[in-house]
Amino acid sequence: MFERFTEDARAVVVGAVAHAERTEAGKVEEQHLLLALLDRRADRASFALDALGLGEDGRKSVARALSEARRRGGLSRADADALSGLGIDLSEIVARVEEAHGAGALTGARTAGRGGRSRWPGLGTGHRPFARGAKDVLTGALRNALAHHDRHIGAEHLLLSLAARPGVPAEALADHGVTYEGVRRVLYGGGRAEAG
């Protein structure tokens, strides 16, 4: 499949790995792909984000929303609301876990255990496997390219895939007026798309 990726799409994948390494995540997750997309300029995905009103401040706000979700162990606000409906206060759980284990304990970052050894041996080598959700985004990008009769998989197909999948990245994008339908209209609809 990767032979069909454009240079821009490959740069997003490489950027996602770099984001995972920077945050010491054990795997490349969907949010790392979105962060790498937000870093890009002058490709079709960036054009779509700009057309939908997600400028520099909006990109920073999306990145903050992803960071907050990461602190919650990757749970979306919808997940937190569902837990709240069951009488479970996620913010209280996060506070207690961080009190006992340190700030960011639920982020999934590597931490040293006894004797200074990493909980995930071998991850200091730069190798980061892709989590199931991130693999699904890549597969979704292929499906989006095929559905639009595009010969190659571009960064825009990764954006479409992220916006279509339920979860934290789509939630963060939608909160900033970027939805699957909006991105699709900007890229393929031929007209000006309204945010949201």
From TrEMBL:
Region (Disordered): 107-126
Keywords: Repeat
One Pfam match: Clp_N
Entries under InterPro entries matching the protein: Clp_N_dom_sf (IPR036628), Clp_R_N (IPR004176)
SUPFAM superfamilies attached to this UniProt entry: Double Clp-N motif
Keyword Repeat listed: yes
Residue span, Clp R domain: 2-194
Protein name per UniProt: Peptidase
Organism encoding this protein: Streptomyces minutiscleroticus
